[in-house]
Amino acid sequence: MEKTMNQSQSLTKHKEWGGKLEVISRVSLETREDLSLAYTPGVAEPCLEIQRDVNLSYTYTRRWNTVAVITDGTAVLGLGDIGPEAAMPVMEGKCILFKQFAGIDAIPLCIRSKNVDEIVNTISLLAGSFGGINLEDISAPRCFEIERRLKEVLDIPVFHDDQHGTAIVALAAFINSLKLTGRKLESTKIVINGAGAAGTAVSELLCKYGVNPANLTICDINGIVNFEVDETRRRSPLSSCKTLTDAMKGADVFFGLSAPNCVNEEMVRSMNKDAILFPMANPLPEIMPDVALKAGAAVVGTGRSDFPNQINNVLAFPGIFRGALDARAKDITDDMKIAAAIAIANYIPENELRPDYIIPCALDKGVAKEVARSATEQSA
Length: 380
Known about the structure:
Elements: H1 5-17, H2 32-38, H3 44-52, H4 57-60, E1 66-71, H5 84-102, E2 105-110, H6 116-126, E3 132-135, H7 142-153, E4 158-160, H8 161-181, E5 190-193, H9 197-209, E6 216-220, E7 223-224, H10 244-248, E8 253-256, H11 265-269, E9 276-279, H12 289-294, E10 299-300, H13 317-326, H14 334-346, H15 366-379
Parallel strand pairs: 1-2, 1-3, 3-4, 5-6, 5-8, 8-9, 9-10
Antiparallel strand pairs: 6-7
């Protein structure tokens, strides 16, 4: 397949860079005294202090500011299961986003296993070197179990960005879209297409924020997904709906975390007036923004940087980890996620909201500071 100019340029630059990360020393090693302080014999003193109190590892080492970015390479971007080594360029990219937006040192770790037990055990054994764990590009449903089990055994934050980073930014965009279109949270009808990691996380965070579960319908490739009613996931899909087309009739909001071009103009026209659409499939969304707007949508956001209202995880994960690390939090809670979403939404003054500006620019580094502040306050 012939590569586009952008693809060819990226390949050339990656070869030129030879990796996007390097280790830089924070200390001078110019004299024998420098060496004796930073290494032997002086280094024995902080080692002994940490032996007496492991929490001092946050004081005497860089652990306080270091996050592991971990994958097994099974769900990388839109490329699928490409393996751990092939996932490394993406993990390195994630690490430089941590550094650029929140000053966090992040280390890419790509694990050669798809076995849940092995992955959980590996991360558990390494956790003492880090202040937090960012799980990345691990396929569903294994990603749910891996995160759950790690949260049970680790005393540092564990965050699967494909789930929760997406959910936080999607919620922020949703909050501002409701303001712009004058909708009330309790009566807004929502359709989510995609029942994988991101779709599940978005639906759960929306409900925790206050969306009425009875107004939330989830679809997958086969149509409406019916969930058992229990105390953690209460879903009441419309009994008359069987397909995505049926589900979108009379809906106010659409979240797409699924596949390209599965929504058409007629489906948008069947939604309520001034519909809100977030087709976030990458690189091709469920419906192109111009098509959705032509069909009557009031607000459209995608996962792409070449359209307005980009739903980009970089608005969430650097700041929420910065806040968690600064607060020495042991977990990133739902309250912290909701606070982060509200901080992102409120970053844009209400009088500045417009259909093509309901979410801050992904390159605005001020967002991470606000998210960090909100996360720290919630973890207190």
